[in-house]
Amino acid sequence: MIIEPKTRGFICITSHPKGCERSVLNQINYIKSKGKIDGPKKVLVIGASTGFGLASRITSAFGSNASTIGVFFEKPPLEGRTASSGWYNTAAFEKEAHKEGIYAKSINGDAFSDEIKEKTIELIKEDLGQIDLVVYSLASPVRTHPITGIRHKSTLKPIGNTYTNKTVDFHTGKVNTISIEPSTEDDIENTVAVMGGEDWKMWIDKLKKENLLASNFKTVAYSYIGPQLTEAVYRKGTIGKAKDHLENTAFTITDSLKDIGGKAYVSVNKALVTQSSSAIPVIPLYISLLYKVMKEKGLQEGCIEQIHRLYTERLFLENTPTDSEGRIRIDDWEMRADVQEKVSELWEQATTETLPTIGDLEGYKTEFFNLFGFNYDEVDYDIDADEMVNIPGLQ
Ligand code: NAI
Known about the structure:
- The mean pLDDT is 97.
- It contains 13 helices and 13 strands.
- It has a single domain (7-156, 184-279, 302-332), classed as Rossmann fold (3-Layer(aba) Sandwich).
- It is an alpha/beta fold.
- Helix 3 (85-99) links the parallel strand 4 (67-72) and strand 5 (104-108).
- Bound molecules: 1,4-dihydronicotinamide adenine dinucleotide (NAI).
């Protein structure tokens, strides 16, 4: 079928298998161009099909020759209906890994459920024995709690006061003012239940109980801080409470891993265009200004560059550098004073008229469509593409 992008709100409901393959190949080529990494050998990536999780899987496999099991929640294709992009990304990743004799298998289902945890544990037992890294990179709007059965929904709201600021609809380029009403206590609790650290700890506890964690095992989850501009709606909002919880959970997990010399880290990553971040109000405007400034200063990175730096300059060093709160920081270039001062200055000037020149709205749009396999020069979108792509190692 001929596959074209179809957007609904901030998501794209179609995706292109050839374009997703292009995106994965670009990331693999980047990692290969950087040479071998003295990193992990047996890796579980939870949230492995897009964004930072996919980049972590690619970096592990093609940088460090690691066997990987990837867990994700993606829509398979049907005749005449495309799969979600994470499906095609995984198919392309596995195809390339298998070509090079690198073990890669995948599990598609709800990572919050006991069923998927058990299925993953069985696969690790059968194929890998003990693993030395778990990357926890889930971004989800909902979680059904495996014990209570309650379905929690996360929200992106300020706490205490209404938040009013500029935002952009990146499809039309229109800069508008939005106001977001403050959260209730329930919103906070629900967001912490979905995006906090409870599920991460459940995974590690279960894996440890089954003796599947190697000595000196590491686990890393991803967090975000960001600038003052977005603080009220992000870091000091409901999602920030969940990130506080996730960051505190790293200490609890580390305590539970003492006997095997294991350690849990949170890495604070840079703001990037992913399916999750496009859904957050205000962030697309911030990112389009940030990209402009970071590109001008030669500091721009995508998920793959970020994770490569995480592996080679932080996580697998003898002494992992952290901030005063014990967090790894690879948002250091985003947070540089000169970058943030320039972004704040541009923020004041940003209007529908000025944004195309002072911000990188085109870059934002291109990256957004790239997430779904569109807008790649190397792909011919006018020819038929087979939507019925299999993931070879899907369990
Ligand atoms: P993403 O939307 O690209 O990836 C999310 C992944 O989670 C996908 O593999 C998806 O299939 C999987 N997933 C979602 N619900 C699932 C479920 N119930 N069961 C199994 N898999 C499920 O997201 P992104 O942006 O890569 O985010 C990953 C982490 O990085 C999040 O914790 C996010 O807060 C954090 N982060 C993101 C930043 C950004 O700017 N995008 C910046 C810093 C941190």
